[in-house]
């Protein structure tokens, strides 16, 4: 059936509403002369607001009617930067840059049709990635007069503009189609010349076989970056012979840069502060001294002489703004981090490493909290697909474990966090190796006696929805599935998608014309007749990435074949649901759908 949601889920001991309400998130922590600032998302109104920690309390700077969120490359990031008098931020509604003092109201710095992101401040100017239709460039915009200066143009994509402390050098990351930022990028540098900068030169990445991100200058003007040249995103520093590796763990020190503005490391001249991933669990160290503590993920690092600042999360606590005393290692939570359940009721992640196909796959297993010896299983498939899941408290996962389901949250082959070779495993293999991994985890957990393999369900959003539909179409492993704004026709996606992902499908599957047979073999819509189990769909009507027609076509095909199907459409959602009522509605109705499939009372 097709229906429109009523956004009024009933109360439960741990309800969908409570699970969604706990999904407060943080981004873009920044430290400056006026103290600590961060961007905070709250599901109740789907707005992103800048907060300032001062006088021992968090103060919201962003007034009602504004939301600090960039949509450059559709995924945004780098939505604000600090200025001498306050902040500059990108307003979500019009994508223009606004200036705001600590006590004042926002005032527009830019106007027009361009969108902005990845903001940085230097020399009285806001540096930014500027997007106008399918054109991208780096610009600097003067705070005093709004004068716009072109810094770099001609490449397809730009990110991470940064100027050395003495103002003599500008560095940035750029890349060209058909590459993605996690396959091949270039580190560029331009020298200051008169009132502008000289012609740029490539200082790393000119071979096209490495991905670089997060360039940084130390206090002395030495340039560093993260590169996966040696197999993992690790810190390297410029030298007389180019770039050389710094001592570091053989592990990814950053996630795939889907969003701009990330900061997972800071060079200090005599060492560095960094986070990295070991078997999916995050680590944090300063000059080799371990500061991980009880946390399992670290983002957006900053530091001063006394404290390390970051956004951190653990298996029993959601994302929080924390300070860590460099002398005592004592942790103080400034904002967030309140678990929606008592610690003893929280299902803790266990590392999954299991055989699949000709390789090995990773993920995390969350036991059901019902006490049932062999509970039903929900397999979570993250989007991207070059993305990752993390062993941190996710209220959505706890929603399922509280209701007697075990959860397998997968980092299938092709996910980030396990090095370049693992990340590249999806090359021309999307819809094959990820699906293999999703199916193999059911067999593995069933063999271990940890779940009931006859009651396994699969769910995923966006690219995860594609993996879900492929698993249902090409394997008989799952009892039912859920596709949240998922891809059912990759060829149609290639025609409609935006520039940032314009060549992504060529990398994942192949050329739509030259490899038409491969596309046909991996298109769930063309194999809808193979799906013999119920499916539920959730789709935003404003989605410009996976357009609603994809879901409607898949629903119609299944209905034509007599397969039980539900579809829920949300008039005010884009790609990925942001409104609390919609998120709660989808979560509860997915649970009720699986209960009906198992023959349980609704």
Give an overview in words.
By secondary structure, the chain is an alpha+beta fold. It is built from 10 helices and 38 strands. The protein is globular, with a radius of gyration of 24 Å. The two termini are 16 Å apart. Mean pLDDT is 94; it is low at 3-12.
Reconstruct the topology from this structure.
Layout: E1 2-4, H1 16-21, E2 25-32, E3 35-42, E4 47-54, E5 57-60, E6 80-83, E7 86-90, E8 97-101, E9 107-108, E10 115-122, E11 125-132, E12 135-142, E13 148-153, E14 157-163, E15 169-175, E16 186-193, E17 196-197, E18 201-204, E19 212-217, E20 223-227, E21 234-239, E22 242-245, E23 265-267, E24 272-278, E25 281-286, E26 289-290, E27 297-303, E28 307-314, E29 317-325, E30 331-336, E31 350-356, E32 359-366, E33 377-381, H2 395-402, E34 406-411, H3 420-423, H4 433-447, E35 456-461, H5 463-474, E36 480-484, H6 490-496, H7 504-508, H8 516-521, E37 535-540, H9 548-560, E38 565-570, H10 580-597
Helix pairs in contact: 4-5
């Amino acid at each position: 059936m097709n229906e429109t949601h009523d956004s009024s889920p009933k109360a439960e001991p741990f309800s969908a509403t409570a699970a969604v309400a706990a999904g407060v998130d943080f981004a873009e922590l920044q430290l400056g002369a006026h103290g600590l600032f961060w961007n905070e998302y709250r599901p109740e109104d789907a707005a992103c607001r800048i907060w300032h920690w001062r006088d021992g309390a968090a103060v919201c700077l962003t007034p009602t009617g504004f939301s600090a969120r960039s949509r450059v490359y559709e995924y945004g990031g780098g939505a604000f930067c600090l200025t001498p008098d306050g902040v500059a931020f990108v307003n979500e509604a019009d994508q223009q840059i606004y200036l705001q003092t600590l006590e004042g109201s926002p005032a527009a710095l830019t106007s027009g049709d361009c969108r902005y992101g990845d903001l940085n401040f230097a020399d009285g100017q806001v540096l930014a990635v500027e997007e106008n239709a399918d054109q991208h460039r780096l610009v600097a915009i003067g705070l005093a007069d709004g004068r716009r200066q072109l810094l770099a143009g001609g490449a397809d994509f730009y990110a991470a503009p940064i100027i050395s402390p003495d103002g003599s050098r500008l560095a940035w990351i750029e890349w060209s189609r058909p590459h993605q930022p996690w396959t091949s990028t270039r580190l560029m540098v331009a020298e200051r010349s008169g009132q502008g900068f000289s012609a740029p030169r490539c200082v790393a990445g000119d071979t096209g076989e490495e991905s670089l991100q997060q360039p940084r200058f130390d206090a002395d003007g030495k340039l560093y970056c993260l590169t996966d040249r040696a197999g993992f995103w690790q810190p390297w520093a410029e030298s007389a012979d180019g770039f050389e590796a710094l001592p570091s763990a053989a592990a990814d020190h950053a996630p795939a840069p889907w969003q701009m503005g990330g900061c997972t490391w800071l060079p200090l001249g005599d060492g560095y502060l960094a986070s990295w991933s070991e078997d999916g669990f995050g680590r944090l160290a300063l000059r080799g001294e371990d500061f991980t503590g009880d946390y399992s993920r670290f983002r957006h690092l900053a530091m001063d002489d006394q404290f390390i600042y970051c956004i951190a999360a653990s298996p029993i606590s959601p994302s929080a703004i924390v300070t860590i005393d460099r002398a005592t290692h004592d942790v103080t939570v400034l904002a967030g981090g309140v678990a929606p359940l008592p610690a003893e009721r929280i299902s803790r992640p266990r590392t999954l490493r299991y055989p699949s196909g000709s390789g090995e796959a990773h993920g995390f297993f969350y036991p059901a909290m019902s006490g049932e010896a062999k509970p039903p299983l929900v397999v979570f498939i993250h989007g991207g697909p070059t993305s990752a899941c993390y062993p941190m408290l996710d209220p959505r996962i706890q929603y399922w474990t509280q209701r007697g389901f075990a959860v397998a949250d997968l980092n299938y082959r092709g996910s980030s966090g396990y090095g370049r070779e693992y990340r590249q495993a999806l090359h021309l293999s999307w819809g094959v190796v990820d699906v293999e991994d999703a199916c193999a985890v059911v067999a593995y957990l069933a063999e271990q006696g940890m779940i009931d393999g006859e009651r396994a369900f699969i769910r995923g959003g966006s690219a995860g929805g594609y993996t879900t539909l492929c698993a249902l179409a090409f394997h008989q492993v799952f009892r039912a599935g859920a596709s949240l704004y998922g891809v059912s026709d990759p060829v149609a996606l290639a025609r409609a998608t935006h520039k940032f992902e314009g060549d992504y499908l060529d990398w994942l599957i192949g050329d739509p014309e030259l490899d038409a047979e491969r596309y046909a073999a991996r298109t769930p819509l063309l194999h809808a007749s193979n799906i013999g189990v119920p499916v539920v769909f959730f789709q935003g009507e404003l989605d410009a990435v996976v357009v609603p027609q994809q879901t409607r076509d898949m629903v119609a095909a299944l209905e034509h074949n007599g397969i039980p199907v539900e579809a829920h459409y949300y008039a005010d959602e884009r790609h990925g649901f942001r409104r609390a009522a919609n998120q709660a509605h989808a979560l509860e109705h997915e649970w009720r759908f699986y209960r009906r499939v198992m023959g349980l009372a609704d």
